[in-house]
Fold this protein.
Amino acid sequence: MRDIPEVASDVAVKMAVEVAGLTLRNPVMPASGTFGYGAEFEPYLNLDGLGALVTKGLSLRPKAGNPTPRIAECSCGMLNAIGLQNIGIDAFVEEKVPFLKGVSTPVIANFFGNTLDEYIQVADKLEKIDVVTGVELNISCPNVKRGGIVFGTDPAAAAKVVSEVRRCLTKPLIVKLTPNVTDITVIARAVEEAGADIICCINTVTGMAVDIKSRRLSLANGTGGLSGPAIKPIALRMVHQVVNAVSVPVIGVGGIASAEDALEFLLLGAKAIQVGTANLVNPGTMGEIVVGMERFLAESGISDINDWIGSLHG
Amino acid sequence: MRDIPEVASDVAVKMAVEVAGLTLRNPVMPASGTFGYGAEFEPYLNLDGLGALVTKGLSLRPKAGNPTPRIAECSCGMLNAIGLQNIGIDAFVEEKVPFLKGVSTPVIANFFGNTLDEYIQVADKLEKIDVVTGVELNISCPNVKRGGIVFGTDPAAAAKVVSEVRRCLTKPLIVKLTPNVTDITVIARAVEEAGADIICCINTVTGMAVDIKSRRLSLANGTGGLSGPAIKPIALRMVHQVVNAVSVPVIGVGGIASAEDALEFLLLGAKAIQVGTANLVNPGTMGEIVVGMERFLAESGISDINDWIGSLHG
Amino acid sequence: MKNLKTVVLQNGEIADGYFRMAILAPGYTRAAQPGQFVMLRIQEQIQPLLRRPFGIYRAAAMPAQCSGLPEREFVELIYKVVGKGTTLMTTLKPGDSVELLGPLGEGFTIDSNINNHLLVGGGIGIVPLYMLAQQLCKRGDKVRLLMGGRSRDDILCISEFERLGVDVNIATEDGSLGETGLVTAVLERELLNFPQAGVYACGPMPMLSAVQAICCSAHVLLQVSLEALMACGIGACLGCVVPGREHSDDTPQYLCTCRQGPVFAAEDLAWPSRSNNDCHSGQGGK
Amino acid sequence: MKNLKTVVLQNGEIADGYFRMAILAPGYTRAAQPGQFVMLRIQEQIQPLLRRPFGIYRAAAMPAQCSGLPEREFVELIYKVVGKGTTLMTTLKPGDSVELLGPLGEGFTIDSNINNHLLVGGGIGIVPLYMLAQQLCKRGDKVRLLMGGRSRDDILCISEFERLGVDVNIATEDGSLGETGLVTAVLERELLNFPQAGVYACGPMPMLSAVQAICCSAHVLLQVSLEALMACGIGACLGCVVPGREHSDDTPQYLCTCRQGPVFAAEDLAWPSRSNNDCHSGQGGK
Ligand SMILES: Cc1cc2nc3c(=O)[nH]c(=O)nc-3n(C[C@H](O)[C@H](O)[C@H](O)COP(=O)(O)OP(=O)(O)OC[C@H]3O[C@@H](n4cnc5c(N)ncnc54)[C@H](O)[C@@H]3O)c2cc1C
Ligand SMILES: Cc1cc2nc3c(=O)[nH]c(=O)nc-3n(C[C@H](O)[C@H](O)[C@H](O)COP(=O)(O)OP(=O)(O)OC[C@H]3O[C@@H](n4cnc5c(N)ncnc54)[C@H](O)[C@@H]3O)c2cc1C
Ligand SMILES: Cc1cc2nc3c(=O)[nH]c(=O)nc-3n(C[C@H](O)[C@H](O)[C@H](O)COP(=O)(O)O)c2cc1C
Ligand SMILES: Cc1cc2nc3c(=O)[nH]c(=O)nc-3n(C[C@H](O)[C@H](O)[C@H](O)COP(=O)(O)O)c2cc1C
Ligand code: FES
Ligand code: FES
């Protein structure tokens, strides 16, 4: 019986990365919606040992989310239809920002809107919050009819929201893409052109579960977002595609649960990675990932993680 | 230690289904490319106990397929980049048809072409092979640059190939769709309109794997098709969408490995199901699925599987 | 709250389909409160992906042994085999590794003005009531357990409650043990005898609804321990919410079962019974 | 060829990182041919998804016991722990369930005109050679095993070959057992002594390539047992192919390792060595 290892190591590997103006202690950060607002993980993790903190998706007004059941376990994955429940941007400032001020890690605020105007209003507010170092624009949530899917699957709509939001923001702007499209490179290029500093992919893959005993869909919402190890091959493919399609840096997400998983995304050229579902399974995961990456790189004779990033052999 | 159960049971459940002119003993059939040409499974399965046999995808000329490595295991799934290796339609007639004549189960020939003309030529030939009861048009293989992806992701191109092939065929025409699209209902409606008798979904989801030890992509082809339990939630979602979008019957495929999995797809309204990767893991799977479905239905007091199909509660 | 990489000490069947598992758990004797739960990771594998939530039945310590083994704290779970995870749990043997996240959630609130307590359990709902009974008995209060189940096989651990000094009433639907019928009938009767009692209930939702309706009309305080699908157990995913008192379809109000619960004052929740709103005056806050 | 739902009889470490497992396998003593393999399903779970291929080391029967146990046929595997599946295999205990698909593939072809045999093994490549040695020794032929490995830990089961009457030469790269160096050096030398020998090799690909080049120049017949990634093991998925003799980038020719192999006549395969084509006249078909 042992405790979860701390985020620290004396292996001499330089882990810091620069991602379009964001200076990160290491390339590991949580995926939005799987880390609450950060404080929930304090007992299990040294928050100051992470590359960044990413908040639950914020909207202009508080959002109650979908009816229950909201989650279902699947083979090597889970479906969620939380429906973007969140306390809203104002309560975030009041209730969560004070805690985040005490953390030395850069804070990235994930946000979304139901309309273009809402996106802009939230961006305006986020620009003014000091503790927010960067923002992550979610144009990809597949759960809420008007909360993303229209923006994220159509290149013109995606470009529009990105350029509008861009105008309110001096902070680094991450745009998070949905995998539920025929060709993710088309969307990636559109949002790059519209002013995205960083592209983050992927959000969840739309899925469904059904219960043959009750003969009902398992989620009250019908469909939900598939996440976890099951989607890692899809995420790797899309990160590879996007890295080769755009020149802005890419953050890889999808099914990362171990240092090896994280190293795979970096090898394909992702400059940083996010951990989602694995935080729910084991709140100490990200600490273990940082330590594991350092160990692997040290053993491979690599002293700077930037030498690993994108170093895939022909 | 016991042997795999036979495909047979004395439970009094009517298992036969009618699918657009195809009369099937039960709704269970193999997914193309995971069952060879049938004979490979004789030692493990009573071929006459299946709903249908579906062949490996056939092309006009023999096809060598992709270089190796061609497969990679993933969490709850596998990637394949076989590249549609097959013996070609003529060798099929010479070498495989004689065996298939000895099987009482309807034979469905899966096929594809690199060009519209090739599709038509193969369809012409299949129409003339007596033992072929139905055909399955693969417009969805994601592995071969010109062998499908263009047809399967664009509604106009999909409709074109379907209507051209339709003209050569009196036999029931199944069209198999790729999941790698933004909105599968658009493609489904297009191929329905163009003359598909049955829609089959889904083919594999494009994915990738990478090996951090060799720092290479795991598949020689780069990307591959993800299959197995990992994709079941995606397949269920798409089957649900397509069932609600078209009026032709739907065959469900993707991650089915047990009777419960099969019953889920049928509950959503699929009229039949295909088993792919699970055949590779356990060549007796389909026999176990048929027996397991009968048992479940009998225990649920359902005497005709048609009463189960589409009986999802509001 | 910690994530312990620890080991199973004991695991065995105690009744048809019910198992009891002891897990090495330093710190739990002091930290665990009645009504709290743990998230158990059955094996360090990807499948099944999610941890499983289980109420804490008991936290205790094995004394140090002459053989040199030091004192060892452990936590005990009692689980019903229902699906993939619990089936896998039955295969665990002493020494097998598990991960234990906990103790989690808000447990029962003990009101010092109430000295008479009715604990109502249905089947596996017995679990969170034992530590509650321990604490209440330690205060010298009068504690009565009303235990229901389908048949005698669903009535667990009764003698352990009796040893604490708890009076026990049993009701089974098939009459194989105790009275024949539902435990809610017993509750209605006992509330006549103890009209000032505090009620604490854990069991299937239909039972909890019936208990709520009864307590509501009897104007007694009720706390319920709920189950909900959980991914994280720590308030991060918002998968485990239940409708709160103010909930309506138009203005949803969701409470987090893993963090604001699993024990709730009944009056904080939305109940199907229409009389609910009338209750709130009668029932005190948690 | 059958899929047996069966049980493990024995499983234990025989050298650092190498295990030996016996599995109950009715029918195998008659059915299994030297060089064939099985696909093992380690547990009836979704993860790891695919079966793992293993050569058949030996198939035999335990005699009936006075205690009433009937005669039991079993198959023995020897495996190296390299990844997820083989790590999981080390945890299997007697009585644990596994599924065994086999015996599969085409094994070694024994040419009755050849009476002198050189078996070349590298590390775990020893596995398919034991049954081959059994059969060749039974014919009264002269059989010599040339065994290579990184260090003494990689040299397995030698005494069992010796008990069959096989002469054994060992070479290790670090010199910790036998000669220092590569087994291919031993082969070159022995081919001078036995210029008419048939050669049978199993081991890592670089070793097989070197063996092929040597046999090619020596004009002796070579059979090689290959490894390939496999999903099905029965010729259904076409995942396991290797380039055949006629293979080129323009006109690929693929052979199915699980069905046309795993043992191939070297001349039927494509080899990196340019001298390959010159060989074919010198080497007979399998
Ligand atoms: C706070 C809390 C305390 C609990 N205490 C106990 C206890 O002491 N003893 C006991 O036997 N059970 C208890 N349960 C229920 C227990 O968590 C489930 O029986 C268990 O998770 C089922 O897992 P499975 O893999 O066997 O079932 P499966 O049906 O295969 O599980 C599939 C998914 O559904 C979830 N799930 C299934 N049933 C339930 C349920 N009733 N409640 C919550 N999630 C469920 C699983 O966690 C898993 O994510 C408690 C639940 C909660 C929320
Ligand atoms: C015909 C044949 C006979 C074999 N006989 C033996 C034997 O007797 N003893 C022995 O120790 N090993 C043998 N191997 C190799 C053995 O199959 C692999 O070592 C094993 O599959 C590794 O599984 P893993 O889960 O531990 O490794 P992982 O790397 O986790 O496996 C991931 C995937 O790669 C595959 N894989 C990894 N290494 C190999 C390999 N070398 N060959 C084929 N597939 C591989 C696995 O099957 C799995 O699908 C044989 C392989 C073949 C094809
Ligand atoms: C419970 C849950 C809630 C999520 N909420 C959000 C969200 O609010 N905003 C967002 O952009 N992504 C959200 N996601 C998606 C994740 O950030 C991530 O993109 C996805 O889960 C894939 O990564 P994973 O496989 O590591 O979980 C959520 C995912 C889960 C599982
Ligand atoms: C090895 C392999 C080969 C395949 N070959 C074909 C093919 O030739 N034609 C085709 O339409 N689909 C092919 N498929 C896709 C399957 O038919 C099926 O649609 C997919 O695997 C999803 O089902 P599953 O999860 O049950 O495997 C192949 C799949 C695999 C795994
Ligand atoms: S289980 Fe994740 S918030 Fe409660
Ligand atoms: S492993 Fe499937 S064809 Fe050989």
Summary: The helical segments of chain C are 28-31, 84-89, 129-138, 158-164, 183-193, 205-218, 276-282.
